[in-house]
Design brief:
Elements lengths: L5 E3 L2 E3 L11 E4 L4 E4 L8 E7 L6 E7 L20 E5 L2 E8 L3 E7 L10 E5 L3 E8 L5 E7 L1 H4 L4 E7 L6 E10 L12 E5 L2 E8 L6 E7 L7 E6 L10 E7 L5 E8 L5 E13 L2 E6 L1 E2 L7 E2 L3 E3 L35 E3 L8 E2 L6 E4 L1 E2 L13 E4 L5 E8 L7 E8 L2 E10 L2 E14 L2 E13 L6 E18 L11 E15 L9 E6 L9 E8 L7 E9 L1
Parallel strand pairs: 29-39
Antiparallel strand pairs: 1-2, 2-25, 3-4, 4-5, 5-6, 7-8, 8-9, 9-10, 11-12, 12-13, 13-14, 15-16, 16-17, 17-18, 19-20, 20-21, 21-22, 23-24, 26-30, 27-28, 28-40, 30-39, 31-36, 31-40, 32-33, 32-39, 33-34, 34-35, 36-37, 37-38
Length: 554
Protein backbone atom coordinates (compact mmCIF):
# COMPACT_ATOMS: atom_id res chain seq x y z
CA UNK A 1 0.00 0.00 0.00
CA UNK A 2 1.55 3.28 -1.14
CA UNK A 3 0.20 6.59 0.13
CA UNK A 4 -0.04 9.17 -2.65
CA UNK A 5 -0.72 12.85 -1.92
CA UNK A 6 -2.23 13.39 -5.38
CA UNK A 7 -6.03 13.47 -5.04
CA UNK A 8 -6.59 14.25 -8.73
CA UNK A 9 -8.66 17.09 -10.19
CA UNK A 10 -6.01 19.62 -9.22
CA UNK A 11 -6.16 18.76 -5.51
CA UNK A 12 -3.88 17.07 -3.00
CA UNK A 13 -4.63 14.91 0.04
CA UNK A 14 -3.07 14.93 3.49
CA UNK A 15 -0.76 13.55 4.65
CA UNK A 16 1.57 14.53 1.83
CA UNK A 17 4.32 12.27 3.25
CA UNK A 18 3.49 9.12 5.20
CA UNK A 19 6.95 8.65 6.70
CA UNK A 20 8.57 9.69 9.94
CA UNK A 21 10.09 13.07 9.07
CA UNK A 22 9.75 14.65 12.49
CA UNK A 23 9.89 18.44 12.97
CA UNK A 24 10.00 19.30 9.24
CA UNK A 25 11.34 22.64 8.05
CA UNK A 26 11.32 23.93 4.47
CA UNK A 27 13.08 26.64 2.50
CA UNK A 28 12.69 27.91 -1.05
CA UNK A 29 15.97 27.54 -2.93
CA UNK A 30 17.16 28.52 -6.38
CA UNK A 31 14.70 26.41 -8.34
CA UNK A 32 13.12 24.02 -5.83
CA UNK A 33 11.98 23.61 -2.24
CA UNK A 34 14.13 21.67 0.20
CA UNK A 35 13.00 20.06 3.44
CA UNK A 36 14.96 18.68 6.37
CA UNK A 37 13.86 17.00 9.60
CA UNK A 38 15.04 15.50 12.89
CA UNK A 39 17.09 12.31 12.66
CA UNK A 40 18.04 11.71 16.32
CA UNK A 41 20.77 9.04 16.61
CA UNK A 42 20.19 7.44 13.20
CA UNK A 43 22.88 7.85 10.53
CA UNK A 44 23.17 9.37 7.99
CA UNK A 45 21.32 12.29 9.54
CA UNK A 46 19.44 15.42 8.54
CA UNK A 47 17.50 14.07 5.54
CA UNK A 48 17.18 16.38 2.54
CA UNK A 49 13.94 16.13 0.57
CA UNK A 50 13.18 18.01 -2.65
CA UNK A 51 9.99 19.28 -4.28
CA UNK A 52 8.86 21.91 -6.76
CA UNK A 53 5.21 22.02 -5.72
CA UNK A 54 5.21 21.42 -1.92
CA UNK A 55 3.14 18.25 -2.43
CA UNK A 56 5.37 15.69 -4.14
CA UNK A 57 8.61 15.14 -2.24
CA UNK A 58 11.61 12.89 -2.93
CA UNK A 59 14.47 12.07 -0.57
CA UNK A 60 17.65 13.20 -2.36
CA UNK A 61 20.42 13.45 0.25
CA UNK A 62 21.50 13.71 3.89
CA UNK A 63 23.43 16.66 5.31
CA UNK A 64 25.22 14.60 8.00
CA UNK A 65 27.37 11.58 7.18
CA UNK A 66 28.00 11.10 10.88
CA UNK A 67 26.77 12.68 14.10
CA UNK A 68 29.23 14.99 15.86
CA UNK A 69 30.66 13.74 19.16
CA UNK A 70 32.36 10.41 19.83
CA UNK A 71 29.62 8.90 21.99
CA UNK A 72 27.37 8.36 18.95
CA UNK A 73 29.38 5.32 17.97
CA UNK A 74 26.75 3.65 20.18
CA UNK A 75 22.95 3.89 19.75
CA UNK A 76 21.57 6.63 22.02
CA UNK A 77 17.82 6.46 21.57
CA UNK A 78 16.14 9.87 21.61
CA UNK A 79 19.43 11.79 21.68
CA UNK A 80 21.38 13.20 18.75
CA UNK A 81 19.94 15.51 16.10
CA UNK A 82 16.67 17.19 17.09
CA UNK A 83 14.50 19.71 15.21
CA UNK A 84 16.60 21.60 12.62
CA UNK A 85 15.93 24.65 10.43
CA UNK A 86 17.00 25.08 6.81
CA UNK A 87 17.43 28.47 5.09
CA UNK A 88 18.73 29.73 1.72
CA UNK A 89 20.61 33.06 1.73
CA UNK A 90 23.17 34.60 -0.63
CA UNK A 91 23.44 31.44 -2.75
CA UNK A 92 24.13 29.27 0.30
CA UNK A 93 21.96 26.73 2.12
CA UNK A 94 22.28 26.66 5.90
CA UNK A 95 21.01 24.12 8.43
CA UNK A 96 21.21 24.88 12.13
CA UNK A 97 20.44 21.87 14.28
CA UNK A 98 20.40 21.15 18.01
CA UNK A 99 21.82 18.24 19.95
CA UNK A 100 20.14 18.74 23.33
CA UNK A 101 23.02 17.24 25.34
CA UNK A 102 25.83 18.89 23.39
CA UNK A 103 24.80 22.25 21.87
CA UNK A 104 23.80 23.99 18.62
CA UNK A 105 25.52 23.30 15.30
CA UNK A 106 25.56 24.73 11.76
CA UNK A 107 26.31 23.06 8.43
CA UNK A 108 26.13 24.65 4.97
CA UNK A 109 26.26 23.80 1.26
CA UNK A 110 26.12 25.53 -2.09
CA UNK A 111 24.29 22.53 -3.49
CA UNK A 112 21.91 20.82 -1.04
CA UNK A 113 22.12 17.61 -3.07
CA UNK A 114 25.93 17.53 -2.74
CA UNK A 115 28.35 17.56 0.17
CA UNK A 116 27.60 19.61 3.26
CA UNK A 117 30.30 21.22 5.39
CA UNK A 118 31.60 19.79 8.64
CA UNK A 119 29.31 21.03 11.43
CA UNK A 120 30.43 24.10 13.40
CA UNK A 121 29.34 24.35 17.03
CA UNK A 122 27.55 27.66 17.74
CA UNK A 123 26.65 26.97 21.35
CA UNK A 124 28.40 24.57 23.72
CA UNK A 125 26.08 23.22 26.39
CA UNK A 126 22.88 21.31 27.06
CA UNK A 127 19.26 22.43 26.93
CA UNK A 128 18.83 24.64 23.85
CA UNK A 129 16.67 23.09 21.10
CA UNK A 130 14.74 23.93 17.92
CA UNK A 131 16.97 26.75 16.58
CA UNK A 132 15.89 28.83 13.58
CA UNK A 133 18.06 31.50 11.89
CA UNK A 134 16.60 34.70 10.45
CA UNK A 135 18.22 37.14 8.00
CA UNK A 136 16.87 40.64 8.65
CA UNK A 137 16.57 43.46 6.13
CA UNK A 138 19.61 45.29 7.56
CA UNK A 139 21.90 42.30 7.03
CA UNK A 140 21.98 41.19 10.65
CA UNK A 141 21.33 37.53 11.49
CA UNK A 142 19.30 36.30 14.45
CA UNK A 143 18.48 32.95 16.00
CA UNK A 144 15.34 31.96 17.92
CA UNK A 145 15.23 28.71 19.89
CA UNK A 146 13.32 26.75 22.54
CA UNK A 147 14.50 24.83 25.58
CA UNK A 148 14.27 21.20 26.75
CA UNK A 149 13.16 20.75 30.37
CA UNK A 150 14.78 17.30 30.45
CA UNK A 151 18.18 18.97 29.96
CA UNK A 152 17.82 22.46 31.43
CA UNK A 153 15.16 22.07 34.13
CA UNK A 154 12.44 24.31 32.69
CA UNK A 155 10.34 24.63 29.52
CA UNK A 156 7.83 26.84 27.67
CA UNK A 157 10.46 29.52 26.99
CA UNK A 158 11.66 31.01 23.68
CA UNK A 159 15.05 32.73 23.39
CA UNK A 160 16.68 35.11 20.90
CA UNK A 161 20.34 35.48 19.91
CA UNK A 162 22.30 37.42 17.31
CA UNK A 163 24.69 35.51 15.06
CA UNK A 164 27.76 36.48 13.10
CA UNK A 165 27.10 37.11 9.41
CA UNK A 166 28.59 33.73 8.47
CA UNK A 167 26.44 31.92 11.08
CA UNK A 168 29.49 30.41 12.80
CA UNK A 169 29.10 31.98 16.26
CA UNK A 170 26.68 33.68 18.64
CA UNK A 171 27.65 37.32 19.22
CA UNK A 172 24.76 38.31 21.53
CA UNK A 173 22.47 36.32 23.80
CA UNK A 174 20.64 34.05 24.11
CA UNK A 175 18.04 36.03 26.07
CA UNK A 176 14.47 35.08 26.98
CA UNK A 177 11.83 36.77 24.82
CA UNK A 178 8.66 34.82 25.66
CA UNK A 179 7.32 32.54 28.42
CA UNK A 180 4.30 30.52 27.33
CA UNK A 181 3.18 29.66 30.85
CA UNK A 182 1.86 33.21 31.28
CA UNK A 183 -0.58 32.78 28.36
CA UNK A 184 -1.52 29.12 28.71
CA UNK A 185 0.84 28.14 25.88
CA UNK A 186 2.68 25.53 27.92
CA UNK A 187 5.47 23.54 26.26
CA UNK A 188 5.82 26.12 23.50
CA UNK A 189 8.74 25.04 21.30
CA UNK A 190 9.82 24.61 17.68
CA UNK A 191 9.87 28.35 16.82
CA UNK A 192 10.25 29.55 13.22
CA UNK A 193 10.90 33.27 12.65
CA UNK A 194 9.61 35.32 9.69
CA UNK A 195 8.93 38.96 8.77
CA UNK A 196 5.83 40.32 7.03
CA UNK A 197 4.88 43.93 6.32
CA UNK A 198 7.01 45.39 9.08
CA UNK A 199 6.10 42.84 11.77
CA UNK A 200 8.07 39.86 13.02
CA UNK A 201 6.19 36.58 13.38
CA UNK A 202 7.16 33.43 15.24
CA UNK A 203 5.24 30.27 14.41
CA UNK A 204 5.51 27.80 17.31
CA UNK A 205 3.51 24.81 18.60
CA UNK A 206 2.38 24.51 22.21
CA UNK A 207 0.52 22.00 24.35
CA UNK A 208 2.51 18.90 23.45
CA UNK A 209 3.17 16.81 20.37
CA UNK A 210 0.03 14.66 20.41
CA UNK A 211 -2.52 17.09 21.81
CA UNK A 212 -1.27 20.61 21.15
CA UNK A 213 -1.96 23.55 18.84
CA UNK A 214 -0.13 26.13 16.72
CA UNK A 215 0.60 29.62 18.01
CA UNK A 216 1.56 32.71 16.02
CA UNK A 217 3.50 35.36 17.94
CA UNK A 218 3.77 38.91 16.59
CA UNK A 219 5.94 41.90 17.47
CA UNK A 220 7.68 44.92 15.96
CA UNK A 221 10.74 44.18 18.12
CA UNK A 222 12.70 40.95 18.11
CA UNK A 223 13.47 41.06 21.82
CA UNK A 224 10.15 42.01 23.44
CA UNK A 225 6.46 42.78 22.95
CA UNK A 226 5.50 39.37 21.55
CA UNK A 227 1.72 38.95 21.37
CA UNK A 228 0.39 35.34 20.96
CA UNK A 229 -2.60 34.02 19.03
CA UNK A 230 -3.73 30.43 18.38
CA UNK A 231 -3.99 30.03 14.60
CA UNK A 232 -4.42 26.24 14.18
CA UNK A 233 -5.80 23.44 16.34
CA UNK A 234 -7.27 19.99 15.87
CA UNK A 235 -10.85 21.22 15.87
CA UNK A 236 -13.36 18.68 14.60
CA UNK A 237 -10.74 16.71 12.66
CA UNK A 238 -8.75 13.57 13.46
CA UNK A 239 -5.46 15.38 12.85
CA UNK A 240 -4.16 15.52 16.41
CA UNK A 241 -1.57 17.89 17.71
CA UNK A 242 -0.93 19.73 14.55
CA UNK A 243 2.70 20.33 15.42
CA UNK A 244 5.66 22.40 14.33
CA UNK A 245 6.61 23.11 10.76
CA UNK A 246 7.27 25.83 8.21
CA UNK A 247 5.56 28.80 6.57
CA UNK A 248 6.29 28.81 2.83
CA UNK A 249 4.93 30.46 -0.35
CA UNK A 250 4.13 28.65 -3.60
CA UNK A 251 5.09 29.77 -7.10
CA UNK A 252 2.17 32.22 -7.23
CA UNK A 253 2.81 33.73 -3.79
CA UNK A 254 0.11 31.80 -1.92
CA UNK A 255 1.12 30.88 1.62
CA UNK A 256 1.10 27.35 3.01
CA UNK A 257 2.13 25.73 6.27
CA UNK A 258 3.89 22.37 6.51
CA UNK A 259 3.55 20.56 9.84
CA UNK A 260 3.60 17.06 11.29
CA UNK A 261 1.05 14.81 12.99
CA UNK A 262 2.10 12.11 15.46
CA UNK A 263 0.42 8.84 14.48
CA UNK A 264 2.12 6.74 17.17
CA UNK A 265 3.72 3.63 15.61
CA UNK A 266 4.63 5.14 12.23
CA UNK A 267 5.94 8.30 13.86
CA UNK A 268 5.38 11.84 12.67
CA UNK A 269 3.88 12.24 9.21
CA UNK A 270 3.75 15.43 7.13
CA UNK A 271 0.72 17.60 6.29
CA UNK A 272 0.31 20.71 4.15
CA UNK A 273 -2.21 23.46 5.07
CA UNK A 274 -3.31 26.63 3.25
CA UNK A 275 -2.67 29.91 5.06
CA UNK A 276 -4.75 33.08 4.87
CA UNK A 277 -4.07 36.38 6.61
CA UNK A 278 -6.83 38.35 8.31
CA UNK A 279 -6.61 41.99 9.48
CA UNK A 280 -5.99 42.74 13.15
CA UNK A 281 -5.70 46.49 13.61
CA UNK A 282 -2.59 47.69 11.81
CA UNK A 283 -1.29 44.13 11.47
CA UNK A 284 -2.58 40.64 10.57
CA UNK A 285 -2.96 37.14 11.98
CA UNK A 286 -2.48 33.95 9.98
CA UNK A 287 -5.33 31.44 9.76
CA UNK A 288 -3.92 27.98 9.04
CA UNK A 289 -6.19 25.39 7.41
CA UNK A 290 -9.96 25.82 7.18
CA UNK A 291 -11.39 28.66 9.33
CA UNK A 292 -13.35 27.41 12.34
CA UNK A 293 -16.80 29.05 12.38
CA UNK A 294 -17.29 31.43 15.29
CA UNK A 295 -13.61 31.64 16.19
CA UNK A 296 -11.29 34.56 15.55
CA UNK A 297 -8.45 33.83 13.15
CA UNK A 298 -8.13 30.13 13.97
CA UNK A 299 -8.31 27.18 11.60
CA UNK A 300 -8.38 23.39 11.63
CA UNK A 301 -6.51 21.00 9.32
CA UNK A 302 -7.81 20.26 5.83
CA UNK A 303 -7.74 16.75 4.37
CA UNK A 304 -7.83 17.89 0.72
CA UNK A 305 -7.06 21.22 -0.92
CA UNK A 306 -6.11 22.83 -4.22
CA UNK A 307 -2.51 22.07 -5.18
CA UNK A 308 0.03 24.86 -4.77
CA UNK A 309 1.48 26.43 -7.92
CA UNK A 310 4.85 24.89 -8.80
CA UNK A 311 7.96 27.05 -8.92
CA UNK A 312 8.98 28.60 -12.24
CA UNK A 313 6.06 27.01 -14.09
CA UNK A 314 7.65 23.60 -13.62
CA UNK A 315 5.52 20.54 -14.05
CA UNK A 316 4.98 18.79 -10.72
CA UNK A 317 7.43 15.93 -10.25
CA UNK A 318 5.55 13.02 -8.77
CA UNK A 319 7.14 11.34 -5.79
CA UNK A 320 8.27 7.89 -6.85
CA UNK A 321 6.39 4.94 -5.32
CA UNK A 322 8.67 3.36 -2.76
CA UNK A 323 8.88 0.07 -4.66
CA UNK A 324 10.35 1.93 -7.65
CA UNK A 325 12.86 4.15 -5.90
CA UNK A 326 16.32 3.92 -7.35
CA UNK A 327 18.00 3.62 -3.96
CA UNK A 328 16.36 0.24 -3.39
CA UNK A 329 18.46 -1.21 -6.20
CA UNK A 330 21.47 -3.11 -4.86
CA UNK A 331 23.77 -1.12 -7.15
CA UNK A 332 22.84 2.08 -5.33
CA UNK A 333 24.87 1.13 -2.26
CA UNK A 334 28.00 3.25 -1.90
CA UNK A 335 30.66 2.34 0.65
CA UNK A 336 29.48 2.72 4.22
CA UNK A 337 26.50 4.80 3.13
CA UNK A 338 23.41 2.66 2.46
CA UNK A 339 20.66 3.57 -0.01
CA UNK A 340 18.89 6.79 0.90
CA UNK A 341 15.90 5.15 2.52
CA UNK A 342 18.11 3.26 4.99
CA UNK A 343 19.95 4.41 8.11
CA UNK A 344 22.32 2.85 10.62
CA UNK A 345 21.48 2.63 14.33
CA UNK A 346 24.46 4.90 15.16
CA UNK A 347 27.66 6.23 13.54
CA UNK A 348 28.86 3.36 11.32
CA UNK A 349 32.22 1.72 10.75
CA UNK A 350 33.54 1.39 7.20
CA UNK A 351 33.62 -2.41 7.25
CA UNK A 352 29.91 -2.76 8.04
CA UNK A 353 28.84 -2.64 4.38
CA UNK A 354 30.44 -3.51 1.05
CA UNK A 355 29.43 -4.37 -2.52
CA UNK A 356 31.55 -7.21 -3.97
CA UNK A 357 31.74 -8.12 -7.66
CA UNK A 358 28.58 -10.20 -7.34
CA UNK A 359 26.59 -7.01 -6.84
CA UNK A 360 25.05 -8.28 -3.63
CA UNK A 361 25.21 -6.11 -0.54
CA UNK A 362 27.40 -7.58 2.17
CA UNK A 363 26.63 -6.71 5.78
CA UNK A 364 29.41 -7.50 8.23
CA UNK A 365 28.74 -8.60 11.79
CA UNK A 366 29.67 -6.76 14.95
CA UNK A 367 30.41 -8.28 18.34
CA UNK A 368 27.24 -8.42 20.42
CA UNK A 369 27.36 -10.22 23.78
CA UNK A 370 24.23 -11.95 24.99
CA UNK A 371 23.60 -9.17 27.50
CA UNK A 372 23.16 -6.52 24.77
CA UNK A 373 19.52 -6.11 23.63
CA UNK A 374 18.78 -6.41 19.95
CA UNK A 375 17.51 -2.82 19.79
CA UNK A 376 20.95 -1.61 20.98
CA UNK A 377 22.96 -3.47 18.34
CA UNK A 378 25.21 -0.94 16.62
CA UNK A 379 24.95 -2.12 13.03
CA UNK A 380 21.19 -2.44 12.64
CA UNK A 381 20.33 -1.25 9.13
CA UNK A 382 16.87 0.27 9.33
CA UNK A 383 14.26 2.18 7.39
CA UNK A 384 11.09 4.11 8.17
CA UNK A 385 7.54 2.79 7.94
CA UNK A 386 6.18 4.30 4.72
CA UNK A 387 2.47 3.43 4.71
CA UNK A 388 -0.27 2.39 7.16
CA UNK A 389 0.09 -1.13 5.74
CA UNK A 390 3.07 -2.52 3.89
CA UNK A 391 5.02 -5.67 3.03
CA UNK A 392 8.81 -5.71 2.71
CA UNK A 393 10.80 -8.70 1.50
CA UNK A 394 14.40 -9.57 0.70
CA UNK A 395 16.68 -12.56 0.17
CA UNK A 396 19.48 -13.31 2.63
CA UNK A 397 22.45 -15.43 1.58
CA UNK A 398 23.80 -16.80 4.86
CA UNK A 399 26.55 -18.97 3.37
CA UNK A 400 29.09 -16.70 5.11
CA UNK A 401 27.47 -17.18 8.51
CA UNK A 402 30.25 -18.08 10.92
CA UNK A 403 30.11 -20.10 14.12
CA UNK A 404 28.43 -17.98 16.80
CA UNK A 405 26.78 -15.69 14.28
CA UNK A 406 23.13 -14.76 13.80
CA UNK A 407 21.45 -12.75 11.03
CA UNK A 408 17.89 -11.89 10.12
CA UNK A 409 15.12 -9.31 10.01
CA UNK A 410 14.10 -7.01 12.86
CA UNK A 411 11.64 -4.38 14.07
CA UNK A 412 12.86 -1.47 16.22
CA UNK A 413 10.73 0.55 18.65
CA UNK A 414 9.60 0.53 22.27
CA UNK A 415 8.37 -2.99 21.52
CA UNK A 416 10.89 -4.69 19.30
CA UNK A 417 11.97 -8.06 18.02
CA UNK A 418 13.70 -10.08 15.36
CA UNK A 419 13.79 -13.44 13.70
CA UNK A 420 16.87 -14.97 12.12
CA UNK A 421 19.23 -17.91 11.74
CA UNK A 422 21.97 -18.62 14.29
CA UNK A 423 24.87 -20.99 13.71
CA UNK A 424 26.52 -23.03 16.45
CA UNK A 425 29.17 -25.35 15.06
CA UNK A 426 27.46 -27.38 12.35
CA UNK A 427 23.99 -26.77 13.80
CA UNK A 428 21.49 -24.07 12.85
CA UNK A 429 18.69 -22.57 14.90
CA UNK A 430 15.81 -20.25 14.11
CA UNK A 431 16.13 -17.52 16.74
CA UNK A 432 13.12 -15.43 17.81
CA UNK A 433 13.77 -12.31 19.89
CA UNK A 434 11.04 -10.30 21.63
CA UNK A 435 11.73 -7.29 23.84
CA UNK A 436 10.43 -4.05 25.28
CA UNK A 437 12.29 -0.82 26.04
CA UNK A 438 11.72 1.55 28.93
CA UNK A 439 13.49 4.83 29.69
CA UNK A 440 14.45 6.19 33.08
CA UNK A 441 16.07 9.64 33.25
CA UNK A 442 16.99 9.27 29.59
CA UNK A 443 18.71 5.89 30.01
CA UNK A 444 17.40 2.90 28.04
CA UNK A 445 16.58 -0.42 29.66
CA UNK A 446 15.24 -3.51 27.90
CA UNK A 447 13.49 -6.70 28.93
CA UNK A 448 14.20 -9.34 26.28
CA UNK A 449 13.28 -12.98 25.71
CA UNK A 450 14.88 -15.37 23.24
CA UNK A 451 13.47 -18.62 21.82
CA UNK A 452 15.36 -21.00 19.54
CA UNK A 453 14.10 -23.78 17.27
CA UNK A 454 16.52 -26.34 15.71
CA UNK A 455 16.70 -26.05 11.95
CA UNK A 456 18.09 -28.67 9.56
CA UNK A 457 21.04 -27.19 7.72
CA UNK A 458 20.82 -27.18 3.94
CA UNK A 459 23.52 -27.00 1.33
CA UNK A 460 22.27 -23.62 0.11
CA UNK A 461 21.93 -21.01 2.82
CA UNK A 462 19.50 -18.65 1.12
CA UNK A 463 16.48 -17.43 3.03
CA UNK A 464 13.51 -15.24 2.26
CA UNK A 465 12.79 -12.64 4.95
CA UNK A 466 9.80 -10.35 5.15
CA UNK A 467 8.08 -7.75 7.29
CA UNK A 468 4.34 -7.21 7.06
CA UNK A 469 2.80 -4.30 8.91
CA UNK A 470 -0.97 -4.08 9.16
CA UNK A 471 -3.72 -2.32 11.08
CA UNK A 472 -5.39 -4.86 13.33
CA UNK A 473 -7.92 -2.98 15.45
CA UNK A 474 -8.98 0.01 13.43
CA UNK A 475 -8.64 3.37 15.14
CA UNK A 476 -9.23 4.12 18.79
CA UNK A 477 -9.91 7.60 20.20
CA UNK A 478 -7.92 8.05 23.38
CA UNK A 479 -8.10 10.98 25.79
CA UNK A 480 -5.30 12.21 28.02
CA UNK A 481 -6.33 14.74 30.66
CA UNK A 482 -8.60 16.81 28.41
CA UNK A 483 -8.79 19.59 27.65
CA UNK A 484 -5.18 20.43 26.79
CA UNK A 485 -5.86 23.94 25.60
CA UNK A 486 -8.45 26.45 24.42
CA UNK A 487 -11.11 24.50 22.53
CA UNK A 488 -9.01 21.35 22.33
CA UNK A 489 -11.14 18.21 22.31
CA UNK A 490 -8.35 16.19 23.89
CA UNK A 491 -8.92 13.24 21.53
CA UNK A 492 -6.15 11.49 19.64
CA UNK A 493 -6.68 8.83 16.99
CA UNK A 494 -4.53 5.86 17.96
CA UNK A 495 -4.20 3.13 15.30
CA UNK A 496 -3.30 -0.34 16.57
CA UNK A 497 -0.73 -1.98 14.33
CA UNK A 498 0.96 -5.37 14.21
CA UNK A 499 4.11 -6.56 12.46
CA UNK A 500 4.70 -10.12 11.31
CA UNK A 501 8.39 -10.96 10.77
CA UNK A 502 9.14 -14.17 8.89
CA UNK A 503 12.07 -16.18 7.60
CA UNK A 504 12.18 -19.34 5.56
CA UNK A 505 14.45 -21.28 3.16
CA UNK A 506 14.35 -20.15 -0.46
CA UNK A 507 15.32 -23.57 -1.86
CA UNK A 508 15.43 -27.21 -0.82
CA UNK A 509 12.86 -29.59 0.59
CA UNK A 510 11.68 -27.01 3.14
CA UNK A 511 11.10 -24.31 0.54
CA UNK A 512 7.96 -22.39 1.38
CA UNK A 513 8.16 -23.20 5.08
CA UNK A 514 7.97 -20.01 7.15
CA UNK A 515 8.92 -19.30 10.72
CA UNK A 516 7.03 -16.23 11.90
CA UNK A 517 6.97 -13.82 14.80
CA UNK A 518 4.12 -11.40 15.56
CA UNK A 519 4.82 -8.15 17.38
CA UNK A 520 2.94 -4.98 18.28
CA UNK A 521 4.29 -1.98 16.38
CA UNK A 522 5.22 0.84 18.75
CA UNK A 523 7.08 4.08 18.22
CA UNK A 524 10.62 4.42 19.50
CA UNK A 525 12.07 7.25 21.59
CA UNK A 526 10.68 10.33 19.74
CA UNK A 527 10.70 8.37 16.45
CA UNK A 528 8.46 6.00 14.57
CA UNK A 529 9.15 2.29 14.53
CA UNK A 530 11.68 1.05 11.97
CA UNK A 531 12.45 -2.31 10.37
CA UNK A 532 15.53 -3.78 8.76
CA UNK A 533 18.43 -6.21 9.14
CA UNK A 534 20.66 -7.39 11.97
CA UNK A 535 23.97 -9.28 11.66
CA UNK A 536 25.66 -10.11 14.97
CA UNK A 537 28.17 -12.44 16.55
CA UNK A 538 28.41 -13.59 20.15
CA UNK A 539 32.07 -14.45 19.63
CA UNK A 540 34.26 -11.41 20.16
CA UNK A 541 36.01 -10.05 17.08
CA UNK A 542 34.29 -12.57 14.79
CA UNK A 543 34.13 -11.08 11.30
CA UNK A 544 31.86 -12.43 8.58
CA UNK A 545 29.52 -11.08 5.95
CA UNK A 546 25.93 -11.79 5.01
CA UNK A 547 24.74 -11.01 1.49
CA UNK A 548 21.46 -9.24 0.88
CA UNK A 549 19.73 -9.03 -2.48
CA UNK A 550 16.37 -8.60 -4.15
CA UNK A 551 15.20 -5.88 -1.81
CA UNK A 552 11.54 -5.36 -2.56
CA UNK A 553 8.76 -3.25 -1.14
CA UNK A 554 5.12 -3.91 -1.89
Amino acid sequence: MICSPDAGNGKYSNPIIYEDYSDPDVCRGKDDYYMTASSFSFVPGLPILKSNDLVHWNLVNYALRKIPEFRYREPLHGCGVWAPAIRFHNETYYIIFPMPDEGLYMTSAKNPEGEWSEPVKLYDGAGLIDPCPFFDDDGRVYLVNGVAKSRIGYKSVLMMSELSSDLTRIIKGPVKIYDGTADGNVTIEGPKLYKRRGFYYIFAPAGGVKTGWQVALRSRNLYDGWKPHICLRQGSTGVNGPHQGALISDGAGNDFFIHFQDVFAAGRITHLQPVNWVPDGEAEWPVIGRPIPGEKACGEPVLTWTKPCPLNDKKSVKAEPIADRKENNVNAYNGVNPPLSWQWNCNPEKEWLSVPASGRICLTSVSAPKERPLVDIRNLLLRRISAPELTFSATLDLSGLADGGCAGICLSGMSYGGIGIRREGDSLFVRKIVGHQVFDCGASYADEKVEEIPFERQQEMRFQVSVQIRNVNGVTAVSDKPPYGPGDEGKVLHPKEEAVLSIGPETGSDRGQKYSLSLPVEAGRWTGAKYGFFVISEIKHRIYAVSVENILLK
